[in-house]
Design goal:
Helix 2 crosses helix 4 and helix 3 crosses helix 4. The chain is an alpha+beta fold.
Length: about 375
């Protein structure tokens, strides 16, 4: 064989193989910088219960962190009791309040204080169609009951309207058991919380908006904060500092923010704020997000609290841009990353409404400013 021909063929093969390798390396390449153990990705299905799924995932991770014990807790348990509490408030406010499937991270903590928590095995929360969650029909029936009740057809409220309302919840979601089995022992939901030594008072919610004073607890004006719970208000840079410190110290956190932004693509596993067009083929230069722009987008209702997810790690792409690894609740087969996605630092600065975090995951200097013990 001709030597020159052989060398030329080998060179062509090398170039082809190298080009193929380069093609394989295009797109987003992420490297996780922190590694915190969390539970498996779940699916909220056709419900507006991301607040419960994200916060339940967070609590499961906290139990893993504190006790190295893994539990699959029932998300629908918290949703069930939130529906009850919303109904009572709706009637007391003469129908002048938000009612629906949505909520916030604190709604889970509030229900734990009142009702404890329970395993998924003990309360699946979908009585009529096991394995599937659909709340649209149930929510419309519940709302119809409330709309009738507040008109007082009998001239006054009957003492049984709430029993009738709860009967609908029992029919669709199932009756809540008084006790259930954990590791062969029968316990109540509150006993389960005590057994795991889980303290809801260890967790706080943080936000960052300039129309409220910094370093104070404020009422965040978002529709799903139906219980009017307080959030500590921080300057944006310090809120970002808390996020980073939390993950670096082994704590995850719940994220509440906007996913209706054009730069959010769960399918592609990224959420970005590029300088140019919204493309998800490979990393691009990201916009610098300042406080004024963030506030403007919130005030004009462009940035809204339409989804909650669980932030589990810091990461970087191949160009060094910082990202936050995010556990969504749209099932593990919803994208090629097993139901996770990576949200860029710019995306977080622009689209974060609030976070929930363990108070020990807040840097000491910031905790002191907030007077958190």
């Amino acid at each position: 064989m001709n030597t020159k021909f052989l060398m030329g063929a080998l060179l062509a093969l090398f170039i082809t193989m190298n080009a193929s390798a380069q093609e394989e390396k295009t797109g987003y390449l992420f490297k996780d910088l922190t590694d915190i153990k969390v539970t498996s990705v779940k699916d909220q299905m056709r419900t507006g219960t991301c607040w419960s799924f994200s916060t339940t995932s967070f609590i499961e991770a906290e139990i893993l962190r504190m006790r190295n014990e893994e539990y699959d807790l029932s998300e629908m348990y918290f949703s069930r009791f939130a529906y009850e509490e919303k109904a009572l408030d709706f009637v007391r406010y003469h129908g002048k309040m938000n009612f629906g499937e949505g909520g916030q991270a604190h709604d889970v903590m509030n229900q734990i204080d009142k009702h404890g928590f329970i395993t998924q095995e003990a309360y699946e929360g979908n009585e009529y169609d096991p394995g599937h969650y659909r709340h649209a029909e149930m929510e419309k029936i519940l709302k119809a009951i409330l709309d009738v009740v507040i008109t007082k057809p009998n001239k006054k409220l009957t003492p049984v309207w709430f029993d009738a309302y709860k009967a609908v919840l029992d029919t669709y979601m199932g009756e809540v058991p008084g006790k259930f089995s954990v590791n062969g022992q029968m316990v109540t939901p509150k006993e389960f919380v005590k057994k795991l030594n889980f303290n809801t008072k260890d967790y706080v919610e943080l936000t960052s908006f300039t129309h409220h004073p910094f370093y104070e607890a404020v009422i965040l004006e978002v529709p799903d904060n139906w219980s009017n719970d307080p959030y500590y208000n921080l300057p944006l840079d310090e809120l970002m500092e808390v996020m980073n410190y939390s993950l670096e110290e082994g704590y995850t956190f719940v994220w509440d923010g906007d996913v209706g932004f054009d730069g959010f693509s769960h399918k592609n596993g990224v959420a970005i704020v590029p300088v140019g067009e919204f493309e998800f083929t490979e990393p691009k230069e990201e916009k610098e997000i300042d406080v004024a722009y963030r506030q403007k987008e919130f005030d004009n209702l462009t940035t809204t609290d339409d989804h909650l997810m669980h932030i589990t790690a810091l990461a970087k792409d191949q160009k060094g841009t910082m990202y936050y690894k995010t556990k969504n609740s749209w099932n593990a087969d919803s994208n090629s990353l097993g139901g996770y996605l990576y949200m860029s630092e710019s995306y977080m600065r622009l689209n974060t409404i609030a976070i929930m975090v363990h108070k020990d995951a807040i840097p000491k200097a910031i905790k002191e400013k907030l007077s958190i013990k």
